[in-house]
Amino acid sequence: MTDAYLDLVNTPLPGRIAKRLGLPRPSVLRRYAPGEPIATHPVLVAGSGAGADALAEVLLGWDVEVRRHVLPGEKLSAAVLVLDTVSAPADLAAPMLELGQAVRLLAPGGRVVGILRSSADTADPAAAAARQGVDGALRSVAHELRGGATANGIILRGTASTTDPTTLGTLRFLLSGRSAYVDGQFVEVTDVPAAKLATTDGDDLSGQPLAGRTAVVTGAARGIGAKIAEVLARDGARVVAVDVPAAGEQLAAVANRVGGTALQLDITAPDAAARILEHVGQRHGVLDAVVHNAGITRDKLLANMDAARWDSVIAVNIASQLRMNEDLLASSVFSDTGRIVSLASTSGIAGNRGQTNYAASKAGVIGMVRAQAAAFDAGTRTINAVAPGFIETEMTGRIPPLRRQVARRLSSLQQGGLPVDVAETIAFLASDDAAGINGQVVRVCGQNLVGA
After folding, report:
1. Phi and psi (nearest 5°) for 400?
2. In 3-state terms, what secondary structure has residue 109?
3. Is 54 exposed, middle or buried (0-12, 13-18, 19+ CB in 10 A)?
4. CB 156 within 8 A of CB 117
5. pTM of the complete model
6. Is-catalytic flag, 5?
């Protein structure tokens, strides 16, 4: 499904008319293409501490032109604001005002990334205030940016530094076109010793960070699930595509397209996980990643909701995941560095009219991920969730046209996302780049103005 309005206002005359009338003018987003450079213009690394100096050296090793201060009139691909040493609110003025100069120079599709320490890791009220202040400031910057630019943050937990593997992997994701529809979000990272990573080349976004891995994708016959399978395969994974028997023909087509295998089953069946593990064990030996994508909607106002609608949504969207995760953890087929990524939704964060059952199930996914994180040791196994906002799919295509247009414009990027945006974030979380991310919920919503 396409956004005809977006296409229209990105042509000369309609674009000028929209500007004159004060209408939204969403930009075509910079999305990932294999082989693309991290940056086509210099990248500003702002900050005065050792962490900023070390990060600047790493970026130079990525063949990126680095600037330590804004140069008048010079276009920038990104501005990385290293604020890992702020200790009081007064420390924010200089770097934030310099960022204000930098955003004027951002090229279309530019990136702003803040790196800071967690306010939860200090007992000093002034330091906590400064760190939390960065959160509010960067989210506000994300609302102000135009031209398809985004602003996000990386929060260092514990002993994590600016040059730890997960910090760098997350930075590369946020600087790249893979994060096109991730905006106004903060990702917490922990330090992960290199010895605990499954491979040594997982931070190479120009290659295949999932090479040699086996990934299961549920609900893979169409829509977001099919695109997840495609992106995981593009990144080198062997994909097992799972869906219900009724979708068998579409499922086979997806599996053939990505060079994977198809497995027809109902994920609500008690033996669903056992069948998946048997399938993977016989063909590949080890299961490295599971993407819980399968989900259904049965929308009704709560006053008109019946037990069948409620129970079916809960059974598919959350109960099946809880049961499967228990079986995965108990199995020797599931890798010691295994990844689980679950599909939540912004409806589970902000709620949505007529979707009490769906919102309950997706909020349940978020609760599950946070609670099970302790069982998935960061640096060995991880469990995370992705919460999409308005994504251009067959389902959203059935929304009445006026409501659909409003929903598209209710984000800082003023447009809906694409299935590939969700898939790119999932592929990142399944890779070594995200080894130190655990129990997190990453919203792929363009910084939706409601609940994000």
Report:
1. -50, 140
2. strand
3. middle
4. yes
5. 0.94
6. no
Amino acid occupying residue 300: K
Per the DSSP assignment, residues forming a β-bridge with 189 are 156
Strand pairing category for 382-388 and 334-343: parallel
Q: Which of 5, 32, 181, 358 is catalytic?
A: 358
Question: Taking a C-beta distance cutoff of 8 angstroms, is the pair 444, 181 a contact?
Answer: yes
- The residue count of the chain comes to 452
Question: Is the CB of residue 345 less than 8 Å from the CB of residue 313?
Answer: no
Q: Could you tell me where the DSSP H helices lie in 235-355? A: 248-258, 272-283, 307-314, 320-329, 347-350
- Give the β-pairing of 287-292 and 334-343: parallel
Mention every residue, 6+ apart, whose C-beta is less than 8 A from residue 199: 209, 211, 212, 432
- Determine the number of helices (DSSP H) and then strands (DSSP E) in the chain: 15, 13
Domains and CATH numbers, the chain: 38-189 (3.40.50.720), 199-444 (3.40.50.720)
Structure tokens at 114: 């803040």
Q: How far apart are CA 272 and CA 324, in angstroms?
A: 7
Q: What is the pLDDT of residues 209-263, one digit of tens each?
A: 999 999 999 999 999 999 999 999 999 999 999 999 999 999 999 999 999 999 9
Nearest to 369 by CA among 389, 390, 343, 391: 343
